Amino acid sequence: MQVAKINKKYNSQFGNAFYDTTSALNSSIVLSRALVDGCGATIPWIIMANNGTERKEKARRLLFDYSIAYLSPFLTLPFTNRLAIKYVSKLTKGLWANNHKAITISNKFLKDADSMMNELKRISKGTEKYPLEALFNRIFPNKKYEQKINIDELLKSCGGDKEKLRQKIIKAKNAVFIFDCLFTFGLLGSVPFINNEITRKQSGQAGFSAEMNMADKEIVENRAKEYEKSKHKKYLAFLSLFAAITLGMSLAGFASLYPNSKNCGKFINYFRNRAKYFDYKKGIYMSRLPFFLGYIADVMGVLFASRNETEKKDVMIRQSFGSAVFFGGDLLLGSLFTNISDRLFGTKLRSEEDNSSFINKIFPKIKSLSDVIDEVEQGKISRVNKKVCAGIFWVNMFILMGSLGYFIPKLVNKMIRRDVEKDVNAQNKINLYTRPRMEDFVKGEKRYLQNQTL
């Protein structure tokens, strides 16, 4: 009996960890993208590389991308939030004051001062720890960490003006957003240029790394000569375009929140009603829309750094298909599987939000796993819904990873070989027509021998 109790407890802990992990991945575009990128794209692409040089280049890209895109938010954003609240909005005096968590309030509550105050009162009862804060508590359990928001102190820093507090929080959030975009996506877009230089120095030759075992060095380098001439200008062009995209996102996401009037025109209201799409979950996880736009900026950096037309096609195929599969495929597949489950098995996984639009009639919105778990715990729906929702998420992920990890590299590698073969064949034809004919060579030898005998 004792063994049975232990096993039951173990299974319960394992089940909770499974649902917690799945819920975190399901609710965070950054974490789920990291899973698909690593297991479904980058690692299989490394394995299926055409040669050792390309394999090293892709492995470095994996290391750089994961460090910048998926690790840095955990390390930089909690600290950046504190800096923004203290120095940009000047809402706290100390860098380690607890009121920096006010920055986690959703933009949908920042449309007016009253909505903001109601939400601040709700979250002031206790906000979630950042991952590093939770780790700190585990290492030093005796250290008391106060994580509540003191609304009175926040208002005091604004002279008791609620509207001034609202604008200061918006200002801090905008500063963090701009910094995060410039830092994260600016570095990600710079990685291909850095990686190209490392490859050139390590291999001793310029050119697209995937082609380096398919043709002579001269042919590979000749195919990349245009890039080598203009790579510095291309990098500056990427930085300029990327900065413009970041500024545009910032204006669209935050500038519309500043007007206090509810009747500020259809154009401003359009962005006010969509400002929540620029939220950060828990203050560190970027939401889907800005992540997608930043990802597009990153893809532009890769395109600018492409060493020839073949590499550009490589990038376009991998990135466009990967983006379509990830940013749209997961939504479509999730909606499809959810509809099938609700109709055939009687689950209740479709969202109760407005589904009147044409797209949502075909692919209705679905509940997140965290919402399903909440409804199960409240007794609104059965436990089966939680199991099915988690199962749909993982089936979805495996389909995405399988399609990205196998079919794309096979298609791209075949395309690269075809392009290189065209240049090799063209080079051979040139050599064939410019090579001295055999009879001319024989005549020359005869004249040389005659002169020697004389």
Which descriptors would you attach to this protein?
single chain; disordered N terminus
Write a structural description.
- With 454 residues, the protein is an all-alpha fold.
- It is 72% helix and 1% strand.
- It is built from 16 helices and two strands.
- Strands 1-2 form a two-stranded antiparallel ribbon.
- A hairpin with a 3-residue loop joins strand 1 and strand 2.
- The longest helix is centred in the C-terminal third of the chain and has 52 residues.
- It is globular, with a radius of gyration of 29 Å.
- The chain starts with a helix and ends with a helix.
Question: Gap between N and C termini, in Å?
Answer: 113 Å
Number of strands: 2
Which structural class do the helices and strands define? mainly alpha
Outline type: globular
Order of helices and strands: HHHHHHHHHHEEHHHHHH
Overall pLDDT, averaged? 79
**What is the share of helical residues?**
over 70%
Total number of helical segments? Answer: 16
Strand content: under 5%
Largest sheet: 2 strands, antiparallel
Multimeric organization: single chain
Q: State Rg.
A: 29 Å
Q: Tell me the strand order in the biggest sheet.
A: 1-2
Low-confidence stretches: 1-6, 432-449
Reconstruct the topology from this structure.
Elements: H1 2-27, H2 29-47, H3 52-88, H4 113-123, H5 131-139, H6 151-156, H7 162-203, H8 217-222, H9 225-254, H10 266-272, E1 280-281, E2 285-286, H11 288-304, H12 309-345, H13 358-362, H14 369-377, H15 383-434, H16 438-453
Antiparallel strand pairs: 1-2
Helix pairs in contact: 1-2, 2-3, 2-15, 3-7, 4-7, 7-9, 7-11, 9-11, 11-12, 12-15, 14-15
